[in-house]
Design brief:
The complex is a heterodimer of chains A (219) and B (338). The mean pLDDT of chain A is 90. Chain A contains seven helices and ten strands. By secondary structure, chain A is α/β, with parallel strands linked by helices. In chain A, helix 3 crosses helix 4. The chains are: A alpha/beta (219), B alpha+beta (338). At the A-B interface, helix 2, helix 3, helix 4 and helix 6 of A face helix 6 and helix 7 of B.
Chain lengths: 219, 338
């Protein structure tokens, strides 16, 4: 599904922050991406999400060499990827429901065709009572859950999550992890970037550890 | 990759049930399932209307459309009046029979009149009598003048059948055969001057229109850049959820097309009202030197229905230019954001 070969990344003329990354993310796989702060986890997620291009090496995503893709093709591939960012990136003028339903709206689907699905998921992540609330009045944890719901609602083939349980209590963290696990069981490849050892200890999965720009894989 | 149906992930239940249904629910809440509201919940526009500072842009487009409409309307008025004058002047031929030594002026004038009447394509020939000629000279020479003391030429006006092309050279030969001192004037020089004046007016009008359109494009481009900068977080989120540039651009484009149409309707509407009332306004000034000059130059100072149609089409074109300029800037800015 995802193949990196000798990938390097630098910002501008600065030092290379990711070096010689070579790894595979198979379909249906589950992995944690971890490492100290500043190791490049978010940059690697952005490479996987095609919002950054590598300065060297080959990135192959869903069978496409990304260096050969045009903008519209990148947009099409992104429809198959769900992403949860640390800063949530919710749209402040839209309700929680509308934020979560946004991927369906962009796909051009009728609202009646996905309304039940969105409401059920919002209930599941504990936002059933906050569907009509605007993000500015949501707590950090509620925003995070809304961002996760938006990322998983369209059942992506690849889910990328950057510290997805950072703002929630341990109980809700476990509940969200189970959502990711079930998503994975239904066919989605999951990459969760986290510092949270407790979270990683709850599920036996492959670990990708970034250290000083290099990647170490523990199967 | 075929996406399977979703499993039950209620608390305590993690069993999978793949049924191949693409739209099966993501999670099953069992008895917790809420009653679904009947109303649609996607009410908010993706790009909020308030985030685009529209008032200034509507004002700019309205002013530009107003200026463009006034320019076009004036050009149409001048062109219509000039065409009217030209057709009137072009349908007449004036023959002057000058007094010459050894020639009888009255007989020459009669001979020319007869010759003109015999000419095919001439529908009316009107020789000016001595008294009528004296009246023509009255503004310069005063009244009570005896023409017998002056060598005043006699004037004969012939009206040409509309659509007839006369062989002027042949006509001149025929007229000079019967009266060697006669000259034929088809007002060609006057018509040429009219044509150049009308051409210059149209050219100036097109120049002003071009400047107005350029100013509109620049204003719209700045407004679009401002709107995109203010809505950058929305653009980024739309990219995250897989929206292409065309989808994003169309969300913004709707706003700019609406703003352009609003401005076009206001500016074009005011200009049309102005032309609608211009006849009354011209009436207020009738009898004054300014009013008479305008009446002589522009006739009734009122646009024909086709003129109003042109102004309406022009307002729509300016709205379309607004949308086009916005779209161009949108794609350029989206390239930067990505």
């Amino acid at each position: 599904m995802v193949r990196f070969e000798n990938v390097g990344l630098r910002y501008g003329l600065g030092p290379e922050i990711l070096r010689d990354l070579s790894f595979l993310i198979p379909a249906h796989s589950f992995q944690f991406l971890t490492g100290p702060s500043g190791a490049g986890k978010t940059s690697l997620l952005r490479l996987l999400f095609l919002s950054l291009r590598p300065t060297r090496g080959l990135v192959n995503l869903f069978g496409h060499d990304i260096s050969l893709l045009g903008k519209e093709q990148v947009a099409d591939l992104r429809k198959r990827i769900g992403i949860v960012l640390q800063d949530f990136r919710l749209l402040d003028h839209m309700t929680t429901y509308e934020n979560v339903a946004l991927p369906f709206r962009v796909m051009g689907r009728e609202e009646s065709s996905y309304r039940r699905e969105v409401i059920d998921l919002l209930k599941w992540v504990g936002l059933g009572e906050r569907m009509d609330a605007l993000p500015p009045i949501l707590s950090g944890g509620e925003k995070q859950r809304a961002a996760i719901a938006r990322a998983v609602i369209s059942r992506p083939h690849l889910l990328l999550a950057d510290e997805p349980t950072g703002s929630v209590d341990p109980t809700l963290g476990r509940r969200l992890l189970r959502l990711f696990i079930e998503l994975n069981k239904s066919g989605t490849a999951v990459v969760i970037a986290t510092h949270d050892i407790t979270l990683m200890d709850q599920y036996d999965a492959r670990r990708l550890v970034l250290h000083q720009g290099r990647l170490h894989i523990y199967e | 990759m075929t996406r399977g149906g979703w499993c039950c992930i209620r608390d305590g239940c993690t069993s999978m049930s793949r049924n191949g249904d693409e739209h099966a629910p993501l999670v099953d809440l069992g008895k917790e399932r809420p009653q679904l509201p009947a109303r649609a919940r996607n009410m908010s526009p993706i790009v909020p209307r308030a985030s685009i500072s529209g008032r200034a842009l509507v004002a700019v487009v309205a002013i530009m459309t107003f200026l463009a409409s006034i320019t076009t309307g004036t050009v149409l008025l001048v062109s219509a009046s000039a065409a009217e004058w030209q057709s009137e002047v072009a349908s007449e031929i004036t023959i002057q029979v000058r007094p010459a030594a050894g020639r009888d002026l009255a007989r020459d004038a009669t001979a020319v009149t007869e010759a003109m009447r015999a000419q095919p394509g001439i529908v009316e020939v009107r020789p000016f009598s001595k008294d009528e000629s004296a009246k023509l000279l009255e503004p310069w020479l005063g009244s009570g003048l005896s023409l017998d003391e002056l060598p005043v030429p006699r004037v004969i006006v012939a009206r040409v059948q509309p659509g007839t092309v006369l062989d002027l050279a042949k006509l001149r030969v025929r007229v000079t055969q019967v009266a060697p001192s006669a000259s034929v004037d088809d007002h060609r020089a006057w018509i040429e001057r009219m044509r150049s004046m009308t051409g210059a007016t149209v050219f100036a009008g097109i120049g002003i229109l071009a400047l107005v359109i350029i100013a509109t494009i620049i204003s719209v481009s700045f407004a679009t850049r401002g709107a995109m900068a203010a809505n950058r977080p929305i653009v980024e989120v739309l990219h995250f959820v897989g929206a292409g540039d065309s989808y994003i651009a169309n969300r913004f484009l709707r706003h700019f097309l609406r703003l352009g149409l609003e401005g076009g309707v206001i500016g074009g509407g005011i200009a049309m009202l102005g032309f609608g009332f211009s006849e009354s306004i011209a009436g207020w000034f009738s009898g004054t030197p300014v009013g008479d000059q305008f009446a002589a130059l522009l006739g009734t100072f009122s646009l024909r229905p086709s003129g109003y149609l042109v102004l309406a089409v022009q307002a729509v074109v300016i709205a379309a230019i607004t949308a086009w300029a916005s779209r161009r800037t949108l794609f350029a800015t989206l390239d930067d954001i990505d």
